[in-house]
């Protein structure tokens, strides 16, 4: 009897200990799997669980989410490779797992640069296998000095990309005009770092300086909310300040405008060199 009770208490104690630990660490390893490469999960100096992804000449690194999402909101805090990061690309993206020729993908790619020069945030969308909807942005802060929050909101109405809660891009669902939009395949979230010195920095003219390797980017505080279409979840509504499935309010429209004016450095919709007289259909809508 006595022994059973001690056992029970001991295992209850262990249970609460495990519970306490997993509450502290719930943010990362519960939700993400390290895929390959030189990746580490550790506590940073502020006591937060962090994943570091490193790149060297022989290794790229990546993680993926355990869950897939068909509509939802993803927030991750990222600190990019400091110093000479030219040629490296750090990514946060969502992608489907079905047939490649019909795949959907939402991309945030951070193109590194030589020391002291700004990063470019490259964004793109693939829907039913068709991409080519690139827009690029400068950031209004040094993304290597600290963590900043990058957000993807994906719902039936639009895809929204936010940086530190500032809306930088909206991709509207124009399916009714025959423009492909991701609307039926779930996506998984990935983070990665890889070498793209064939195109990333000044169109490939600046090469990765491998003497600076390993190049390391840090991800922390992964937050994901799944918002399945048939389910009205109060969490989904709340977490978007009630605009998950709404038109943008004036504040958000102003943010978009401000970012377009001050930080957008490339827009496929204005690239007449590339498309000549036939801009993609969505560029001439709205
Ligand atoms: C690197 O910095 C230069 C100079 O500011 C800028 O023109 C270029 O777009 C940057 N490249 C990338 C890949 O961010």
UniProtKB/TrEMBL annotation:
It comes from the Eukaryota. Contains at least one intrachain disulfide bond essential for its enzymatic activity. Its EC number is 2.4.1.207. The active site is at 105 (nucleophile), 109 (proton donor). InterPro entries: Beta-glucanase-like (IPR000757), Beta-glucanase/XTH (IPR044791), Beta_glucanase (IPR008264), ConA-like_dom_sf (IPR013320), GH16_AS (IPR008263), XET_C (IPR010713), XTH (IPR016455). It is found in: Secreted, Cell wall; Secreted, Extracellular space, Apoplast. Its main location: secreted. Gene3D superfamilies: 2.60.120.200. GO terms for cellular component: apoplast. GO terms for molecular function: hydrolase activity, hydrolyzing O-glycosyl compounds; xyloglucan:xyloglucosyl transferase activity. Coiled coil: none annotated. Residues 9-219 form the GH16 domain. Glycans are attached at residue 113. One of its GO terms (biological process) is xyloglucan metabolic process. Keywords: Apoplast, Cell wall, Cell wall biogenesis/degradation, Disulfide bond, Glycoprotein, Glycosidase, Hydrolase, Secreted, Signal, Transferase. Catalyzes xyloglucan endohydrolysis (XEH) and/or endotransglycosylation (XET). Cleaves and religates xyloglucan polymers, an essential constituent of the primary cell wall, and thereby participates in cell wall construction of growing tissues. PANTHER family: XYLOGLUCAN ENDOTRANSGLUCOSYLASE/HYDROLASE PROTEIN 8-RELATED (PTHR31062). This is Xyloglucan endotransglucosylase/hydrolase. It comes from Oryza brachyantha (malo sina).
